[in-house]
Each structure stands twice: as structure tokens, then as C-alpha cells.
């Protein structure tokens, strides 16, 4: 098929793709339709719900695991328990320090604007933070 784009002529060379007609179909706006699948794509493995030593798992579909805080502590690569605890304590201290710095900056801006209500709220927030 000859085509043209902005005055440049070219030939359409779309590859021939083998498809198979699926079982799913229906009618949409009066027209019949069927789903089509590429012939060369393998069918996915069946999903099975299994259990091993009391732990349930599924086959045939990848599972995306979201690590929890306790799991992160136990699975940091290359760390022994004591080193992990030191690292997590340092991270906690750094996090609290960043929160305190942000709170102090917000208090300075509120005082500069003369917003006494906000200053009182920020002072209450400061009281809820753990001591250093």
C-alpha cells in the first residue's frame, strides 16, 4: 500500500501476524465481534492455590510483595542483627531530626507572618515529638 506523509511517499510494510479467534465474543452496536490472540504467544500457566507447611501461595502468576517495616529490618542484605539495629537507629534519629528542622522552619514562618493560632498548633505538635 502506497502512503504519503507531508509530501514524502512511502510503502506500508506491516508484518503479517497470525492470530487465532478466541472463545470470548459478543455484539457491540449491532456488530458481532470475537477476541483474537496472537498465535505465537504461549498460553499462561494455570493458577493453582497451594499450601506448603501452612503457608499459602499461588502458581502461574507473579506475586508482588510489599515489604513491611518488620520484614525490612530482618532482610537488609549483608547486615548482621547488631549492625541492622545500629543502622535503623541512625535512620530513626535522622528522620526525627528532619521532622524537627521542618517544624522549626514552619514556626519561624508562622511567627514572621504573625499567625498566633498556627504558632500554638506547631508548639503542640513539637510537644508530641519524642525527646532526643
Automatic annotation (TrEMBL):
Full protein name: DUF4278 domain-containing protein
Species this protein is from: Allocoleopsis franciscana PCC 7113
A family per Pfam: DUF4278
Top-level taxonomic group: Bacteria
Cited InterPro entries: DUF4278 (IPR025458)
Amino acid at each position: 500500500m502506497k502512503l504519503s506523509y507531508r509530501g514524502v511517499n512511502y510503502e506500508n510494510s506491516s508484518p503479517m501476524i497470525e492470530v487465532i479467534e478466541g472463545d470470548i465474543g459478543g455484539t457491540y452496536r449491532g456488530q458481532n465481534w470475537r477476541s483474537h490472540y496472537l498465535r505465537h504467544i504461549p498460553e499462561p500457566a494455570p493458577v493453582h492455590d497451594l499450601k506448603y507447611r501452612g503457608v499459602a501461595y499461588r502458581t502461574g502468576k507473579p506475586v508482588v510483595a510489599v515489604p513491611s517495616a518488620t520484614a525490612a529490618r530482618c532482610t537488609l542484605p549483608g547486615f548482621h542483627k547488631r549492625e541492622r539495629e545500629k543502622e535503623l537507629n541512625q535512620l530513626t534519629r535522622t528522620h526525627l531530626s528532619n521532622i524537627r528542622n521542618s517544624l522549626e522552619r514552619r514556626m519561624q514562618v508562622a511567627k514572621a507572618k504573625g499567625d498566633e493560632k498556627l504558632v500554638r498548633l506547631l508548639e503542640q505538635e513539637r510537644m508530641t515529638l519524642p525527646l532526643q
